[in-house]
Write a structure and sequence with these properties.
heterotrimer; A mainly alpha (331); B alpha/beta (505); C mainly alpha (329); B: 505 residues; alpha/beta; Rossmann fold; 3 domains; six-stranded mixed β-sheet; 18 helices; 22 strands; 33% helix; C: 329 residues; mainly alpha
Amino acid sequence: MNKSIGFQLPKRFSPPVIAVILAILLFVISTFFLKTDTGLAGMINRGKMIINITAFLGLIAAGQTIVILAGGEGIDLSAGTTVTLAAILTAVVADKSDARLPLALFVALSAGALVGLINGIGVAILKIHPVVMTLSVSGVTMGTILAIYRGAVQGGAGPGFNKFVAMPFTIGNVNFGFTGAVVAWIFVSIVLWFILNKTQFGKHLFAIGVNRDAAHLSGVRVTRTAILAYVLCGVFTAFGGFIVLGYIQTVYFIIGDGYLFPSIAAVVLGGTVLAGGEGSYWGTMSGALVLTVLDSILTSSQVEERARLIVLGVLLLAVISLYGRQKALRQ
Amino acid sequence: MAQNLTSNDIVKHFAGVTALSSGCLTANSGEVVALIGANGSGKSTLCKIITGVVAPDEGQLLLNGTPISFSTPVEAIKSGIAAVYQDLSLIPSLSIAQNIWLTREPMSGIFIKYRTQRKRTQELLDLFADTMRTSLTPDTLVNELPPDEQQIVEILKAVSTNPRIMILDEATSSLDSRQVDRLFTLIGEWKKQDKAIIFISHRMVEVFRIADRITVLRNGKTVGDFDAKKVKEKDLINLMVENAKEHLEKTGTSIFKKLRETVLKVTNLRTQRLQGIDFEVKKGELLGIAGLQGQGQSDILHSIFGSIQFSGTIELDGRDHQFKHTSQSMAKDIALVPGDRAKEGLLMRLSILENLMLPSWRKYGLPLNTGKAKKDAAKTSQSLKIIMADLNMPVSSLSGGNAQKVVIGKWLQRNPRILLLNDPTKGVDVGTKAEFYDLLKDLCKNGTTILFYSSDDEELVGLCDRVLVIRDGMIRKEIPRSKLTLSSLITASVTSSEETAHATD
Amino acid sequence: MQQIRRFFTKKTFVFSIVLFILVILVNFAMQYANLGLDKFEKRFMFLLDNNIRGFIPLILLAIAQAIVLINGSIDLSIGNLMGVVAAFLVTQYSKDDSIARFLQVFVMAIGIGVLAGALNGIFVSLVRIPPFITTYATSFVFSGIAMWILPRPGGNMPEIATTFYRTMLPLGLPMGMWIILIIMLLWLVFRNTRFGAHMYAIGGNEKAAFTSGVSVIRHRMSVHMIAGFLAAFAALALVLITGSSDPRIGATMTLDSVVAVVLGGTPMSGGIGGVVGPIFGVLTLGFVRNIVGFANVDTWVQPLVDALIILVALASPSLIRLILKQARK
């Protein structure tokens, strides 16, 4: 008598693949359902637009992926405030000039690294639970922002940058339809792929995600690797905030909040195991795609925020019920 | 009152692996039946089915001729079946009393009668009086106990249910000889009380000592059932392993080794369990570490490896080293094979390849040359004869012996100068053990220095150049090869220091 | 000697009590500085009363969180769960409701709380999703529901109830103190039942508990439902003071509940803890915030100060432990 709830997915359909299929399905259904342009050209255009929007969530969820892979119930609940912080710092330092953008980028990434370092020290050295630590740090970040800027932030990114991020790419006469944000996203995905698969750090990251004791006995510097994971998370998240500024152009304090929950959902949807040690960034990218398609459907249907929250919550529960279940106590 | 438990043709699959294809076992009251078989033969699975922890896919379980099935472990306990497992089922943060009486707490209305609970616990503890080091009270927390005493609590827990059928699954693996003696005395009493006992062990000496009947499992199938007094050990071994090999030959190739330079010198080593250890090891030596369980032997290895805190001096080639982290000792070509394979030695969810290569990635450059890594891993797994489907399969798909080869393989990749082994053949089948012994001898011949802690005295006698016997955190005796016999080892392990000083070798 | 050591490790709240005493002294010193010293005793009771009553909602949430943590689970939705019940209460009541109506609605509110807890419980114990992500997800579901019921801050509470709660001093002692006493007594009873003992077993080692026959699924379900039950009371305690509710109130209180529990010495790994720790954790946190309030901090800087307090509060037990370990070397 075999008792089990739910079902096991066949191995060929890895979560990233499923997510992409799901995204495409939802997209196609929504096109007909919402009575938008159903011609192929129209659909492709809309599809490109969706990918352009997904880029932002995709960038922000990169850091989250690293920290969840590291295991130990790792998570970054300060991602939202880090995004806001990075966007504000970029706006202030760049002060509407393209020339100062490299400096602004440096400042933003450093701030992200600092936040990550604090998170890492709290989690890996002081052994504070990641949920609690990152949540508290997000409060401190927000508090710092309020205390310094008191409600209004002047400045912004330069016009060239804004165009790069928000407008579709054109080389010569060919309009690719994708924005600079997507280019940045692809760049980040390559960097992250390299870090996770072609560096010793990446191997050690997966190792500590699976079993910290065994990793330690194999020579892995567990504490250092964990802290570095949080620092990298902060850096990637800050980069996300940097790019986001190019899109929204004026900063307001709750920019980051809307990305936090979706970033976690994207990682989970993409098949990265919450316990750590298993997963990939491709998964997160696919997860981000699904969420963006879903969100666009909800927005087009003019669903209010309160319902959106409920839908997101239910969706996350549903997805986790499919892939994220722990082993039954009795097999 | 005669009880009889029979399992007929039990089948069980786990995620692509068939643990049991025909599990048959009969246990009668007043009798001890031993269940033996190589690693992965299905012994533990069969027991877990009998005790309701796992559900069988096919087959029948009969109690006194009536078919039964258990949907939870509690039902099995209510039917009078109790088991003592290999993986302890105790809760470390609770006390001995709380652990033993969990779900059967003496009640008064809705409240637990703690005083009664304590009293009953003390009565149980008295059964093993004088065989335990620490002074135990019912309120002692389990996480304060060493492994052998935790095992005893586990046994007492089973006893407290007053079972008709007792299953002891490798219950003696953590016990010292005094405790085993006491346990066997208790088993004798249980037989008189008409209890049926199922005894699972790798230790043939114990099996022949206590069993009335012996059932043999091989690859998930019962292949034989014998009268313990009539069958020969050699025949049993041949039945357990596919290829008949001379496994039990004491490989006492006592090539008197030419002593080379001292490679490791330990002075006044102190840890929580060690009270000051001094010894030297020469290059190419196979030094054994022996003694009763939990005397601090693994601390010696972990201190040299740098994975625990210690005080004292450890000199490598004449230079003092205070390794604070494993990566430092690894840089000096020291390797440690840990005692608990699943928790310390392997990353179970990762592939065989990843496990083999984890300590070595630094040598593969940036970006990592994963192609070369794959080749090197394939080479190592071939030379160790690891039986696997593919390097990319998760290491959890391997049987115990092969999994242990991966643990050793990952260190051999690095050509260590000093190899530290922490009870490496625990739970490894007889065939793999033999391969392992040959490997160790080859390594020594090529200049690798080996420190080998084992809870299996026979093993040490067969392999080592010298054995250090540890007791109460200190070296009680050093036995050179010429005087190394099973009896001299055991004598040194249990007698007090004064007696050892006078003992005739 | 070993027994003393065991006392300190088992009674994890010692640290929080010491901290609490310190904080209370500073707190009252500052309050008296503001209000003068006349009629000492009456003032003392008054201050104590007001303060503690304000802490009751968080105390209840912290206890709920502690129970869930001891069981080895966690509840990140508890604040928003409370928010749902609070929203329900203030939209169902009107100012002139009778006592009977008051009780009637409250019983329904308890039902809602327990159901919400059951939702968490089902996903955690039956579907077996890790608790921190489950409750993180349900926290959004609950906040959405709360917003649905009560889109804007407001609502009503029966005057009979609010007056009673705000002004009564049974036997001259603060109402809040009585509530805490009742809670502690109930806990003592709970602790000595099988359910209580099993809670620690499951939190200590879930697999071992299961093998020993503890009904882990049923227990964990119950624990989450108890959390929902307590959250309902917390909601009541909250709206009785304020007379209305804000749909967004839940979010910060979840973090506060975890911080209070950690401050009180309960480890997040499960298997250890009690009710005294969380209570003192809440009181300490509350009084520290009072002190900050008296220090006349700029409104724009207050969130930062509050967040820093929380961070320091979380880091302190670990920092102290680390320092002690270094000192022992």
